[in-house]
Amino acid sequence: MLNKHTITLLKIIYSNNYIKMKTASLFLLTIFLLYNSMDSFATPKDAKEQIIHFNVKQFGAIADGKTDDSEAFRKAITAAIGVGEKSVVFVPAGCYKLDVPMGRGMLEIKNAKNLVLKGEKGTLLISSNPTKHMINIDSSSNVVVRNFELDRHPFVFTQGMISKIDIPTKTVEVTIDEGYDEPDSKFLAKLKSFLVFVDPKADTWDHSRWWPQINSRDRIAPMKWKFTLSVEPLQNYLGKRFLLWDNTYKGWGVVTNNSRDCLVENIRYYGGGADAGIGIWGCGGTITYKNFMTGVPDGSSRLIAAAGGSQEFENRGTIIFDSCDFSRVDDDGFNMGTSYVKVLKQIDSKTIVVEKLNTPFAVGDTITLWDWFLKKARNEAVLVNFTINYDRTVTLVLDKAMEVIHPTGSVGLPVKSEYKGGGRFEEFDGIDRIADFQAAGKSIIRNCRFQNMRARGILCKTSNSIIENNTFYNTHMTAILVGPEFYWGEAPAVRNLTIRNNHFINIDGSCINIGCFNSDNSYDNKNILIEGNVFENYGAKGGVGIAGIQGTAVLIRNADGVVLRNNIFKPSAPTAPKDSKPVVIEVSKNVIFENNVGIINNLK
Predict the structure, then answer these.
(1) Where would you tag: which of 45, 107, 189, 563 has the fewest CB atoms within 10 A of its CB?
(2) 3-class secondary structure for 447-483?
(3) What stretches of 321-423 show up as alpha helix (H) in DSSP?
(4) Of all helices (H) and strands (E), which one includes residue 34?
(5) E-assigned strands of 245-350?
(6) How many helices, marked H, and strands, marked E, lie in the chain?
(7) Distance CA 495, CA 46 (A)
(8) 8-state DSSP, 49
(9) DSSP state of 212
(10) Does residue 437 contact residue 340 with C-beta atoms inside 8 Å?
(11) What is the pLDDT of residue 12?
(12) Hey, what's the torsion of the CAs at 420, 208, 554, 479, to 10 degrees?
């Protein structure tokens, strides 16, 4: 007699037209095969909870690295979700080529509950579409993804060696490395940035100026090209390796959307030059990424893995990164928070209307009103009620009065057409904004490694969070940046953060940079413990962008209540400014030093 799981699976298969039945014998054969493919992992202790096993090879996967196995994965995942109970999609060792996406991801787990997608050791998935996520978990709960290597081919970058430069004509001649596509290929023809690794000991390209753009490209011979640049090549380009790459293709590694209580572990994401390894957006409960690596394959000569390490936004739960490794990435290794939203108008002293972004407001949240001219919080209240309006605005009702001074359209605001400064106009538009503390979630980052070619290791805008036992090395900006980032409108300020037992090596900017950047009277980052960390060989170069102070290991700015305890400050890099100080305090109060080595305690 067929069990209920087999019957359910048959309904799924026939309703989705996976098999077109022609004869009764084929129908019976299908039942026989499905019945015998059901593996129960139940033990006597949990015999009532059978776990249904779906092997992708039983749905047609070939795993030869050449045949498109997309349809087999789609069938297996859809069947497992359709069971509606605990199920496992099992992927035996092999190389699986994926050409056709299931949705936003090459593999998509959507509206699932208690599903496991797992591979054997040596399971490699290769995507040919750089615009899609490799694995997308969407609107699901208690999903586990484990034991995969993820790669992309073709790559969306190319690399090689500079063999000749001509400064007057702004040209360089290059040889493309074996195994990499030529610059006129499908995904590379529109790329413009020419990134040169002038220092063979460094893990990043030249940051002495904004990197050159390629204005034209001409083939000299197979795998040999001449590029005309937007600026004159530097003399030290000759004989150096280069990378042709832009963050153009937006496919991520393993993404978790609008889900809760999920685990992703034992993943190696090589990127192929596409977007970041991890995205976590709009999630609740606890989302854990454990032993997740974004980098290049062992022994590989690839100059880049992915556009970034991870981004986590608008989450209400706890995000845990445990034993993860991010290297050869361009943008932030970990960036978590929520968005500032503009105040559109004030109805009365306790009722305001704001723009609708992705902020997941909830009754009981702590709301802060920020003065965008002073870059500081003006008021704080608790959200009593909110309404999402038809005109894509949100009405917030608060438990106490808020003083809105500069809503959108008020007199005296800067005019975008007249703005002559650098950067994004939104950083200087002067419109009051709202930040929701709970909408940023909580983060725990431990036992991880961060190496970044341009941006930050961790950009933290979450409260009640812990950053511990991590290693930061060879990073060009700052290793840990704490607080809101007005340039991108990312919130909020940080409260109750512990940074302990981390090791910082060869960080060009400040290793820890706490601050609201250009605010001269804000003390909104509160209660921060910096304990048991080791800083060495920092400040070799001045970091680009928001990088703190060259030669300063810890920059404390716009903070109230910081304790530095039991830290070890080893000498800065030999090329750091001679008058640089290991710790600098600006626009802060209640900063306490206890038992640190390498600095004079209780003094700046």
Answers:
(1) 45
(2) CCEEEECCCCCEEECCCCEEEECCEEEEECCCCEEEC
(3) none
(4) helix 24-37
(5) 254-257, 260-269, 278-281, 284-294, 310-313, 318-322, 325-329, 334-339, 341-348
(6) 3, 44
(7) 43
(8) S
(9) P
(10) no
(11) 40
(12) 100
CA distance 191 to 188: 5
Q: Which amino acid is at 35?
A: Y
Task: Identify which of 503, 600, 603, 510 has the alpha carbon closest to the alpha carbon of residue 550.
Answer: 510
442-454 pLDDT, tens per residue?
999 999 999 999 9
DSSP secondary structure of 412-460: T---GGG--SSS-GGGTS---EEEESGGG-EEEEES-EEEESSS-SEEE
- The pLDDT tens digits for 530-546 are 999 999 999 998 877 78
> In the structure encoding, which two tokens stand for residue 495, read together?
């409260």
Pair of tokens at residue 549: 């102070």
Model pTM above 0.85: yes
Q: Which residues contact 258 (CB under 8 A, 6 or more apart)?
A: 138, 139, 281, 282, 283
CA–CA separation, 585 vs 562, rounded Å?
Answer: 10
Distance CA 21, CA 326 (A): 49
Q: How far apart are CA 153 and CA 131, in angstroms?
A: 12
The DSSP 8-state label assigned to residue 232 in this structure reads P
Residues 55-86 have pLDDT tens digits of 999 999 999 999 999 999 999 999 999 998 89
Question: Using CA atoms, how far apart are residues 480 and 476, in angstroms rounded to an integer?
Answer: 12
Query: Angle at CA 280, nearest 5°, toward 510 and 354?
Result: 85
Span 169-199, pLDDT tens digits: 999 999 999 999 999 999 999 999 999 999 9
CA gap 326, 583 in Å, rounded: 27
Q: 260 and 317 in contact (C-beta within 8 Å)?
A: yes
User: Dihedral of the CA atoms 190, 160, 268, 55 (nearest 10)?
Assistant: 70
- Cβ neighbors of 24 (< 8 A, separation 6 or more) are none
Instruction: Measure the CA–CA gap between 118 and 540, rounded to whole angstroms.
Output: 43
Phi–psi pair at 477, nearest 5 degrees: -85, -130
Neighbours of 254 (CB within 10 A): 26
Q: pLDDT digit string (tens) for 201-242?
A: 888 999 999 999 999 999 999 999 999 999 999 999 999 999
Domains belonging to the chain, first-starting first, are 39-151+250-329 (2.160.20), 158-244 (2.40.10.170), 346-436 (no CATH)
Residue located via tokens 């309006």: 389
Structure tokens given for 173: 């001649």
Q: Tell me the CA distances in angstroms from 119 to 56, 116, 280, 291, one per residue in order.
A: 10, 10, 22, 15
For residues 427 and 375, give the distance between their C-alpha atoms in angstroms, rounded to a whole number. 10
Partnered with residue 387 across adjacent β-strands are 395
